[in-house]
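User: Need the bound-state model for pyridoxal-5'-phosphate:
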Amino acid sequence: MQHFASDNYAGICPEALAALLAANDGHVRSYGDDEWTLQAADRLRELFETDCDVYFVFNGTAANSLALAALCQSYHSVICHHLAHVETDECGAPEFFSNGAKLLAVGGEQGKLTPAAIVEAVSRRSDIHHPKPKVVTLTQATEVGTVYRPDELRALADAAHERGLRVHMDGARFANAVAGLGLSPAEMTWRAGVDVLCFGGTKMGLPVGEAVVFFDRRLAEDFSYRCKQAGQLASKMRFLSAPWLGILENGTWLRHAAHANAMARRLAAGVAEVAGLPALFPVDANGVFVRLPGRIEEGLRERGWLFYNFIGAGGARFMCGWDTAPETVDRLVGDVRELARES
Ligand SMILES: *Cc1c(COP(=O)(O)O)cnc(C)c1O
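Assistant: Bound-state model below.
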């Protein structure tokens, strides 16, 4: 049975699995000094069309926390959206790994930060008693399934850089954002002013792992020590990196992401049609948020569907993944139709 709770409910996509198995061949150097890791980093440099510095870590919490820690000192602060994963779902890891840097959460429509909110957060205080803003972190695609366009990113990055702040992107669903806009990864990151990207692998079909991509290599100074100290340096690194090779080939990662996005649009259109319930946010990526009447939500759960309702601005969240089948979406929509009729 497929579910809509999270895109990390899905298994490993065949391309990543094949690459993982292919890497299981003989003895090779450990700790990242192997062919697969070097090649995966090269493929990412080609993908981003720039000489970026790349690190592979186990999960998104570590990627975000260690990247943010690299961008600031313990007495600094990090501006984020109040729905940001770093704020709501990382158990204080960004604060922990930065030795106390404070997250400053600000508002913004549709899960997005605005230049005005950044300016307000930076200007709020300038005295020595308040942590000094040093980083802006934004999530792409956002926690409510919307996507920043390059002009929006550029405006945010300009507002940040003009005030001496660095720009970090939590790209747990970067693939879905790229597929949604149909633009190049470069246009959506460094060309728009992003300094560091945490490129999510897990949710796009890898067994495990994310890539931390530094577009400004100076910011990556000693980053490998940070990873090691945090328990994020895999000794058998090839099994983290090889799956990336599998999905970066032939645009597989984008194809999977585009499929997930299409399934989300199908789901949103279906639920709107059969129950008159519109999505709460534009379906720019692979997530759909709907405010379901209690009896429909309970009815879906009774029928065995798993989905979250604690994320974002309320409502039920339905996430689609690389393997979400159209039939699964149609079955869910059919159940919503029946439950809406019964009531
Ligand atoms: C899933 C996710 C992460 C990473 O979470 P981990 O469970 O630590 O891998 C980071 N940011 C966002 C927005 C996410 O949805």
